[in-house]
Amino acid sequence: MSKLTLYSMKEVKVIIKREHLGYITDLLDSLGTTGYTIVQIISGRGHHGIHVSNPMTNSMENLVMLLSVMPEEKLEAVLEGLNPILDEYTGIVYVFDVAVSNKGYF
């Protein structure tokens, strides 16, 4: 059996109000990231207390989570691009070291 080869990448996870999602997807597209995953409605508790999104409405107040995996050399530009929106609006960014099995996708 052959060994699965893994490649080091960075994962960026952004949690923000739906109304700001277009800014982030436009940013990622403009910087040449190859893809992202969006989780449409999330709930939780954080700095501003409990937040419950309503799946019955498509409210811009609902929180969304965007995940994107990229080579480390793209990370700094992505984080710099996120600064203006996160300085003005509530949101959070997590960055993780991840390993992927198909380097060509990123």
Question: Which helices and strands, and how do they pair?
Answer:
Blueprint: E1 7-17, H1 21-30, E2 37-42, E3 44-46, E4 49-51, E5 63-70, H2 72-88, E6 91-100
Helix pairs in contact: 1-2
What attributes does this structure have?
2 helices; 4-stranded antiparallel sheet; single chain; 106 residues; alpha+beta; Alpha-Beta Plaits
In a nutshell, what does this entry contain?
By secondary structure, the chain is an alpha+beta fold. The protein has 2 helices and 6 strands, in the order E-H-E-E-E-E-H-E.
Plain-language structure description:
By secondary structure, the chain is α+β, with helices and mostly antiparallel strands. It has one domain (9-100): Alpha-Beta Plaits. The chain is built from 2 helices and 6 strands. The strands form 2 sheets. It has a 4-stranded antiparallel β-sheet with strand order 2-5-1-6, covered by helices on one side. A two-stranded antiparallel ribbon has the order 3-4.
